[in-house]
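thoughts on my protein:
***
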Amino acid sequence: MTRVVGGGLGRSPFGPQWVGGKETPQSVAAQVEDALFGRKKPTVLDPDDAEAGPLLAKLQPYRKKLARLAGDQEDDYRLVLAAGTIASIDQGGTVYVGRSFLLATPFEIQVGALAHEIGHRPQLWAQYRQNQPMEPEALEELLRLEETRADYFAGWALGQLGFSVEPLAKFLEALEDGPHPEYLAATLRGKTLREGHQAGHLRKKNLKKFFPELARMRSVSGDLGEG
C-alpha cells in the first residue's frame, strides 16, 4: 500500500497537507480552512475511470446515509475521483477520493474515511466567521478538536452501518510516519474511533430492539435500492 502523507487528519491520511508559511488569514474560519483543508485541491480525475469509477459509485449510497447521520442534507456533499490524496473535503462539501486509495483498500476503510470527512461538517464553520485570528498554539488546539470530532463521528457512523472499526484504526496506525506536534497519535485516534463505534453500535442495537419500524426507515438498505 502506498504511504500517503496528508493532512485532513493532521499529517496522517485523509486530507491535503497542512499549509504553513502563508500570510495570516483574517478570521478563525480562514485559518481553519487553510490549515485543515489546504488551498491547493487535489487533481480531479475522470469519473468514468474503468477501474476506480465503479468503486467510487459504490460509495455514493453511503455518502447519502452518512450525510443524514451527520444531520445534514444528502446534497450537502458530493464525491469526486482525485489524484494525490486518500480522502479530503473542501469547505464546499466536495469530498475528493483518491484513485489509488480506492484500488488498494477494503471497502469498510473507504467508508470510514468518507465518514471522517463528512464528520468535519464544513458548512458549520460559519460559527468561526466573527472570530479574530488565533495564535498558533490555540489554532492547533482547535484543529485537534475538529479532528477528534471527525474521528468520533467516523467510528459512530461505522457502528451505525454495521462495519467494524478495526480496519480503519489499523490503517491509521500503519500510515503514521512519526510523531507530529499538530495532531494526536494514531493510537489515541484509534481509541476515539472505538469509543464512537461502541456508541453507534449500541444506538443501532437499541433502535432495532425498541423501534424496529424506525430502524427500517433509517436503514441504509433504502439508499442501496433494497427497499
In short: The chain has one domain: 28-217. The first helix runs from residue 28 to 37. Strands lie at 43-44, 78-83, 87-89, 94-98.
